[in-house]
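Purpose: get a first structural picture of the assembly so the mutagenesis plan has something to point at.
Setup: two entries, given in the order below. No constraints added.
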Amino acid sequence: MLEVRDIDVFYGDAQALYGVGFTVAEGELVTLVGANGAGKTTILRAVAGIRPVARGDLLFEGEPLRRVPAHRRPGLGIALVPEGRELWPQLTVRENLELGAYDRAARARAAESFAHVYDLFPKLKDRAGQLAGSMSGGEQQMVAIGRALMSRPRLLMMDEPSLGLAPLVVGQMFAAVRRLHADGLTILLVEQNLARALKVADRGYVIETGTVSLTGTSEQLLADPAVRAAYLGV
Amino acid sequence: MGEVVVLAVSAVLLAGFYAAMAYGLGLIYGVLRIVNLAHGGIIMASAYVTWQLFDRFAIDPFLAIPIVLVVFFAIGVGIYLGLVRFLPRGPAGAVQSLLLLFGVWLVIRNVAYLLFTGNEQVIHTGYATSSVRILGGSFSATRLAVFAVATVALFTLHLLLTRTYLGKAIRAVAQNPDSCTLAGINVERIYVFTFGLGTALAGLAGTLASTLFAFNPSFGASELLKSFVIIVLGGLGSIVGIALGALVLAFAEVFAVYAVPPYLTTAVGFVLLVVVLVLRPGGLFGQRVLR
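Result (structure tokens, whole complex):
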């Protein structure tokens, strides 16, 4: 479904990604793990189109993505739940979700999408009229995920959905991820919490200083001595 | 007592015009973070367009409003696409945008001097001297009509911003443009539309002003400053904030006749601005973001 081939990305003169390549197949839950600043967020931003790619190719369902402007990509079926949620704090929860379905095709199916999101996060239905900025961190994360789902994505990318949340809420978040995956949604998940991410994922890529250093199924990575030493502290 | 009521009604009528006048400036600032210094120039240009439509084609100023809205929306889109688009985004572009739009104002003003000389112009409609009695006072029909148009314009705008996808997208861009791109909103297009809309509102204010005041090519300077006072008082937030800001300014100006000589009433607004900026920098009514 998604094929990333050898991409280089720069921030000004500083290179952030060096020939990163990976694939995500339809229905898979793939995770990108690694330390802070390794380039995971940059990868997601490049796929979403809000970070330009200097070299390499991005293919979504076989079609090249690089020339597609970022605001057109949700219409193709690519959605990103950004790090730090990035909601519109002074809009209500309902308005935040509504704007997730801005693309014409998604707008036509908004009622159905609302039902889906409220089914996944019943709390949002009760809080629909509340300003998004007045919600707790966990609830805001639900709104962010809900907003992305409103665009009817076929590939859902999530950047650190558990960041800054209480342990109990982190559990709920991963339960939601697992459920979306079980429903057949293709997911690309970025996490610092490697153990937790690999527990829900089918496969993973370890990102180190802007390159893919290791890849394998979740079981292989969890069993890998180098991974265990570097990330699990065992 | 009767006099106070009459002054109060007259302040409310003035506030309607003020709110419509300030909204274009507030909208553009709220969404693009640019202070449109050409705002006053647009108001002046629109007064001249209205006058020309009246003088040459005998189109009543109030019936000219649809034409003015379309023309100035197009002018706003032109200014955005031709100039504003190339400014650096964010704080880096702040000074450039002030200089650029001040330059646009100077150009508009000097074109007006060239075309129409510096003479004062007045639009003499057939009903210019008609009046209506309200609460024991006599008010000009024109001022009532201006108030009605301004109120309808603000209400329509409110519906646009709160009830339509486009309006919600405009508010979302004001709050966080990056996540708008992720949601599939073409942020650049929202900027173009907002600049056009803000300019069209300044155009509307110019048409309304042309029915109330005499004008020359320097007209618009104190309108820009008053608009600025209003958005600072109201806190840039919502239509309600702008309306409250306009009411405060209008009441202060109208009731200042009791305290200061008439030639100082214009200064009242600026004294108010300084006081509010010192005591409540977030505006009298909170909210610095467009809601």
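The CA atoms of residues 175 and 200 of chain A lie 9 Å apart.
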